[in-house]
Amino acid sequence: MNTMNCKEFKEMLVSGANNLANQHEHINSLNVFPVPDGDTGTNMNMTFGSGVKEVCKLMNDNVGETAKALGKNMLMSARGNSGVILSQIFKGIYRALDQKQTVTAEDFCGAFENGAKVAYKAVMKPVEGTILTVVRESSEDASRYFSMNKSCTIEQYFDVLTEKARKSLDNTPELLPVLKEVGVVDSGGAGYVSILEGFCRYLHGDPVRSRDQEPAENKERGYCIEVQLKVRNKSFSFDSFKKSMNKNGSVVNCVCEEDTVRLHVHTLKPGDVLNRCQNEGVLETIKIENLEIEHNVTLDYTVREVENVRYATVSVVNGKGIEHMFRQLGVEYFISGGQTMNPAAGDFVELIRNIHADNVFILPNNGNIIMAAQQAKKTLKDRNVTVIETRSIPEGLSACMAFNGEAELEDNMANMLDAVANVKTGSVTTAVKDTSYNNVAISKDDFMGIFGKDIVVSNHDMMDVTEKLLDAMIDEDSSYVTVIYGVGADKKKAAEIEKYISDKYQLDCGINDGQQDLYPFIIGVE
After folding, report:
1. What architecture (CATH level 2) is domain 223-299?
2. Which of 146, 234, 314, 405 is the most buried (most CB within 10 A)?
3. At the topology level of CATH, where does 6-203 sit?
4. How confident is the model at residue 294, as a pLDDT?
């Protein structure tokens, strides 16, 4: 093939998306940390898959337009750092293919090189041995091949690009020592290679079909439901509600602010979705669309004009108890996420567009959500949005305590960042595989004590692990400890930890029921 048209381009994208979807669980398993929320494959799959699904709905015959739609949809769907970086790669690709009705090997050559350049620029401190290295080295090697074989076909170009990407991926452990220690290649790079392999299979007449769902090019079945729900159930759990919606269909977006939930879900059983919503409160607005026909049923309402407040804060939380902790500190807007499901940039955008405030702070509370929050800030060019780069729940809580509603924006930013810098974070969770990290032997299902970015202890006794984690975190400068217990722990165990801190270190300690999943204890030391 010397020239690719729009239909062929879309079919190639579908094959790449399906291959990534089929391999995303394996890619998750390549994460260095053996934690239960290692989700690189899931984040990349949702980012790329959402973009491809949208462009397949386009009725057009222009590759440049399709590539642009793919890139823009990926930017809004981007989840986690891996998803954001992948979206930046395809942002560079679509910019290079702009206005092109059809494409050649030479066009792809320039596009993938530009994808690497844009992705590097998007990362403040690029690390070699990651997806960035894989996309850069493979695009450079493929360009050298093209310069010596300018009459090559598109199939030949992608064969070389994919072969060089595999070679670069295999070399990532030599560039990033932690990969070598754990015995894995970079998970983000592996996700990128799986997309390229799907492209190649299409070009050689063997397109990849998804094992778990209908091919991406098939038209969606069922109903699209958009609901605004005013919660009345006093025992309402947003996390439980969102999980039930995922069981009923595919959640496009679900955000909570105070007692209002905005839900966008695709489902085959609209009655089940609406019944669950009615059990939780009052349906203020409903929009139902049959995805198979052009027909809408809408119950609309009039939006009241609301005067802007000076400040508003959006916090990412996991657990009703943690949400309550932030509410006590004045936070009113929440996005569920942090463990197992990172919110997309579009989740932030949709919520913030409905917030009436002159200045909006975002607290990601997870290092893997910061890039999505930053992407949302770039998208909301008409709003004054500030991302405070909190990497944990304790950092987010400290930032809130440093906030002063009467202070100027610059003073608040400085005070919040100072507070974040003075917090040490630890957590206890279970290992999902046998491995070794930083000379700590780890067995599947054992408990791990994680201090910042390091696993410092691991064994079968959760309380012993928690105590040893505290020993690693507390020093002579420590003055206060916050203990947040979640699923897997209880008030009695938390009280034992409080006694340990008081008896051994004579420090004040706050105990809170966070109700978070996966992490029995989250600890902050100030």
Report:
1. 2-Layer Sandwich (3.30)
2. 314
3. 1.25.40
4. 40
